[in-house]
Predict the 3D structure of the following.
Amino acid sequence: MSTEDQKSTDVNLTRRKVLTGATGVVGAVGAGFMAVPFLGSWMPSERAKAAGAPVNADVSRLQPGQMLTVSWRGKPVWVVRRTPEMLKILTENVTELRDPDSNESIQPDYSKNAFRSINEEFLVVVGICTHLGCAPLYRPAVGSPDMQEGWKGGFFCPCHGSRFDLAGRVAKSVPAPTNLVIPPYHFRTESIIRVGEDPTEGGVA
């Protein structure tokens, strides 16, 4: 074989190696692009979340009297861990409420009770005032200095003065017409609350 022929063979082999390597890289990249939507399909999409996909609230570190917020259907949902003192007040303030038995308000059947909850210790409620959709403030302490005299703890809407107790029940003589909304929910475990899903769909009632 001549020197020129040898050079030509070497060049062809080099080109073949380059093309083979490039094909392998393209194939790997292509597989990567295919894997991204495949793996992404395992997670709820933003559209699914906006449409009401359930969300979890972990209450394992929530101390008595504290509140945490999760977002469901683009709305804030509050989870309040109530103290024994708070629960006692809820049984004594019924004469001050517009709808103490929640007959004109929205909640699942399993939370239509004095505490408006499955487990009386935990309130799960949509944090939007039923008057004009404002965001009430959480004022759990009896006699909070920034509240009116006789305040027994609850939620206060500064926009128009609506007041709700720690079961989300509306006071008399305020603009809000009904109690705060209780969403569907259940306890998946003792410390995980599944918001947006009824007990019949899984979990412990």
